[in-house]
Every structure is written in structure tokens, then in C-alpha cells.
Amino acid sequence: MKMQVINNKETMTSTELAALLGYTKSKVNEKIRDMFAAEIDGSFIGSSLDSRGYVAEYHLPEVESNMFVARWDYTHLRKLADFWVSKKGAYQLPDFTNPAIAARAWADEVELKQLAEQKAEQAMIEVDRLQGVCQTMAAQFKVGMTTNKFCSQFNGVNIQQVNKTLVKLGKLRVDGSGYSATSVARDVLFKSEFGDYSPYASVLPKGAKWLYRAYLAGKLPMKKSWDGAYVHLTFNF
């Protein structure tokens, strides 16, 4: 099966995850849907369909695959690190009859194991960071928050252009003098509200996750003065 590239990132398939964890592919697909519903809806996680039009495979970028394994079976994180190391470069069997090549191959193997261990450690650090961010966002999330208010906690986002960008992404629509959720996002990502004589969209829990993923993927409008750092700020709402 041809590998999908999402947001310029290589991906790992449900089949590969199933082989790694010892689950059936259908069980892996079910767990992916449970964990990443907003990311799937927001096209941050791709899929392949079978001949009947049903999802046969999900395609997870590296960070999401690390998060998935850390949640469902963290004992396989080192195997996952090995997978990503091998995926990023084709490996050819060296000529072990040549002493110099054999020695180099042994050194390369040691370096590969060290790199895999570093990747596994980095994966755990990233999972911890994302869990911390999600906990902070959950603590700060308030029912009825507007899209602008919620996005104000993301460093560099141009708050004045957020709703216009969400219109272009098909999540909001212009509604008279304000904005409301489109049919695909209504009561899933955002909720249409009405206040001060104009409609607006409030953020739902799945919408909060979707906005954060959109921020990390560079899909939200940024200020010209943005320093380039994707940082989650803390405010007292």
C-alpha cells in the first residue's frame, strides 16, 4: 500500500500498528477513531477506503503514532522508534566479507540502536508535553467560549482573522453580521450562538482539539510580528 504524506509528514498505517501491538487491524481502527475523532474530522489523520467505500486503513503521522502507542501499550515505544528510524531510510544488507564494511556495519548498528533509544525518549517527552497541554487547555476551556477567545491562548495567532480563516476551511459561514457553524461542524466542533444582536460560534471540546491541531499544522492566520514559536500560552479567562 502506498504511504500517505499528510502536512508534509510520513505516516504509519493501521496495519503496521496492528503488527507492532499484536491487535487486529479492526481493533486498531476502532481505537484510532476513539482517540483521534477530531483529528480525523479535521483531515490531520488520513484514511484509505476499501472497495465498498469503508475505511480500510488510517494513516497516522509520527507524533500521533507515538501518542497512540503510549496510551494503548507504551511497552512498544522502543519498537515504534525503530520503525520510524528504518522508515526514513532504505536499508541495504552490507558485504560482511569485507572487514572494513563489516566494522562500519557494526558501528552503524550501534548508532541505530542509540538513535532508536533517543527517539523513544523524545517520544515520551512529546507525549508528556502534549498531555500537559491538553490538561491545561481542558482546565481553561469554558463552555460558550468564542473561537477568537479560545485561539487567543496560542502564540502568534491573528485573532482578527481567525473566523475568516475558519470560513475558508469550511467550518464556519458568514451569517448576517456574524458567523455560525457550518452543517459539517455544527454541534461537533462548534455551536452556533446568538448574542449582542449578531450570531457567533462557540467552541465545543472536539473543536478545541481541532483548533489546536490546526494551529500546530500552520492552518490558522498568524500575525506579521509572530516570532515563529508554536507556544501554548496560559491566560485566566
- Can you tell me the overall shape? elongated
Helix content: 40-55%
Specify the number of helices: 9
Largest sheet: 4 strands, antiparallel
Overall structural domain count: 2
In percent terms, what proportion of residues is strand? 15-25%
Q: From N to C, what is the helix and strand string?
A: EEHHHEEHHHHHEEEEH
Average of the residue pLDDT scores? 79
Low-confidence sequence ranges? none
Structural class: alpha+beta
Q: N- to C-terminal separation?
A: 47 Å
Roughly how many Å is the radius of gyration? 21 Å
Arrangement of strands in the largest sheet: 1-2-4-3
Provide an overview of this structure.
Helices cover 48% and strands 16% of the residues. It is elongated, with a radius of gyration of 21 Å. By secondary structure, the chain is of the alpha+beta class. The strands form 3 sheets. Strands 1-2-4-3 form a 4-stranded antiparallel beta sheet. The model has no long low-confidence stretch (mean pLDDT 79). It has helices spanning 14-21, 25-35, 37-41, 62-73, 77-87, 99-140, 147-151, 162-168, 205-216, and strands at residues 5-6, 9-13, 46-49, 55-61, 172-175, 178-181, 190-195, 198-203. It folds into 2 domains: 5-138, no CATH class; 147-216, no CATH class. The longest helix is centred in the middle third of the chain and has 42 residues, at 99-140. A hairpin with a 2-residue loop joins strand 7 and strand 8. Helix 1 (14-21) crosses helix 2, helix 4 packs across helix 6 (99-140) and helix 5 (77-87) crosses helix 6 (99-140).
